[in-house]
Amino acid sequence: MLKWLFWIDKSFWGKGVATKALQMFLNIEPKRPLYGHAAFDNYGSQKVMENCGFVRIGTETGFANARQAEIEEVVYRLDH
What we know:
- It is a single chain.
- By secondary structure, the protein is of the alpha+beta class.
- It is built from 2 helices and 3 strands.
- It has a 3-stranded antiparallel beta sheet with strand order 1-3-2, covered by helices on one side.
- Strand 2 and strand 3 form a beta hairpin.
């Protein structure tokens, strides 16, 4: 399974940088379905995935390295 993490410097938030980067990645990665996870309170990352066609399919618990704790994550899937 391919797993990738990203971080966008706060000075670039809300400028479409993460959305554009994900769109570019999706153009070169043909594998489908793809799954994405975001922290339950990370609305920016959730919006990026939604902007790129990912659909929310549920939640699960995952370990957040930045928080050094288990948290609820929102799970997304992209089929096309």
